[in-house]
Amino acid sequence: MDYGKFKYEAAQKARDARRNQANTVLKEIRFRLKIDDHDYETKKGHVERFLNGGDKVKVMIMFRGREQSRPEMGIRLLQRLAEDVSELATVESAPRQDGRNMVMVLAPTRKKSDAKNEQRKRREAERAAKRDRKAERSAKESKVKADEAELA
Fold first, then answer.
1. Rounded to 5 degrees, what angle do the CA atoms 143, 146, 151 make?
2. Is residue 32, in this structure, part of any structural domain at all?
3. pLDDT in tens, 94-125
4. What local confidence, expressed as pLDDT, does residue 28 receive?
5. Is 61 a member of any domain?
6. Rounded mean pLDDT of 130-138?
7. Distances (CA, A) of 35 to 28, 43, 79
8. Could you tell me the CATH number of the domain that includes residue 36?
9. What keywords does the record list, in alphabetical order (predicted)?
């Protein structure tokens, strides 16, 4: 085997290994205990987006003043969130009080590398569709110009 060819194939393998390697990032989202329904849905959407991207999510509830005497309400809110995103994530660390905050960590059910590969395939499919539309448009325009030249 040629040394250049060997070197090239080794570089290809290394590049593919780097492409499939993905570092999971710990994203953080903060809630307040008295959160409105719409605000909750918005933040839940952010959590779902992070989990779909393959990142872990640290959910934090901030207690202020007398809210600190009601940790069971914080646990209830975190359990509700965990149930709402149960198809995307599992609870990695249960809710625990940490001073004025209550923290829970959610881990995605699918790997980040799988999410990146799916995202890459979707992007390539969109680019191919865009190229096809552009080719159709240019073919149509050239046909119209040919018809105009024929009439003239």
1. 125
2. yes
3. 999 988 999 999 999 877 777 777 888 889 99
4. 94
5. yes
6. 91
7. 17, 10, 14
8. 3.30.110.10
9. Cytoplasm, Initiation factor, Protein biosynthesis
Range of the domain at 85: 23-110
DSSP state for residue 108 in the 8-state scheme: E
Q: What residues have CB less than 8 Å from 27, skipping those under 6 apart?
A: 50, 55, 56, 57, 58
Q: Which residue has the tokens 């709402």?
A: 84
What CA–CA distances, in Å, run from 25 to 54, 87, 115, 137?
8, 20, 13, 42
Contact predicate 95/103, CB 8 Å: yes
Residue 107 is given by DSSP the state E
Angle at 104 between CA 34 and CA 23, to 5 degrees: 130
User: Count of domains in the chain?
Assistant: 1
User: Measured between alpha carbons, how far is 74 from 30 in angstroms, rounded to an integer?
Assistant: 12
- CA 98/CA 121 separation, integer angstroms: 41
Residue with tokens 């096809």: 132
101 in a domain, yes or no? yes
DSSP annotation string for 30-64 = EEESS--HHHHHHHHHHHHHHHHTT-EEEEEEE--
In a domain, 135, yes or no: no
